[in-house]
Amino acid sequence: MNEISVAFEPKGRARARRAAEAAAQPLRRYPARVARQLALAHALQRRVDADEFVDYATMARALGFTRARVTQLMDLLLLAPDIQSEILFLECPPGEQPLSERRLRDTVLKSLDWREQRKRWAEIFRAPSIGRLTSP
User: Fold this and answer.
1) Secondary structure element (H or E) that encloses residue 31, with its range
2) What gap in Å lies between CA 82 and CA 118, rounded to an integer?
3) pTM of the shown model
4) How far apart are CA 84 and CA 39, in angstroms?
């Protein structure tokens, strides 16, 4: 009698192998939402500086934003430059956000004094949700 052997991998093993390979790959990280919002604020300010828009109200109408939203975005530009730099480099995996824009406005931007902002930023930055998501 002739014997035929066929090599195969049971479904469970193949699935486990693929999961192990996926776990071994580095987790993809994306710029945090607050970083994208700060970058948008800088881009909008450049457009105002280039006389593309007369003022924020004109810009809001042209872009379909409310004047309040434009003001909120532009308020991000009042952050100390070193804090802005740290925010622009915040990264996170999909589905996670280290910091909301509202929390940033409600804590750090309560003061326009950069020293005070830096103290408040340090308090927020020590939070595990932000510290573990920052880029190396």
Assistant:
1) strand 30-31
2) 9
3) 0.73
4) 9
Rounded to 10 degrees, the C-alpha dihedral 58/61/66/68 comes to 0
Distance CA 93, CA 18 (A): 20
* Residue 135 near residue 29 (C-beta atoms within 8 A): yes
Give the Å distances, CA to CA, from 122 to 58, 104, 130: 36, 12, 11
pLDDT classification of 84: cutoffs 50, 70, 90: very high
Q: Quick check: 60 and 67 in contact, CB under 8 A?
A: yes
Does 118 have pLDDT greater than 70? yes
Nearest of 82, 89, 74 to residue 117 by alpha carbon: 82
Extract the tokens encoding 9: 């991998």
Domain extents in the chain? 31-131
pLDDT (tens digit per residue) in 12-51: 676 777 777 766 666 788 899 999 999 999 999 999 999 9
The answer to whether residue 132 scores a pLDDT higher than 80 is no
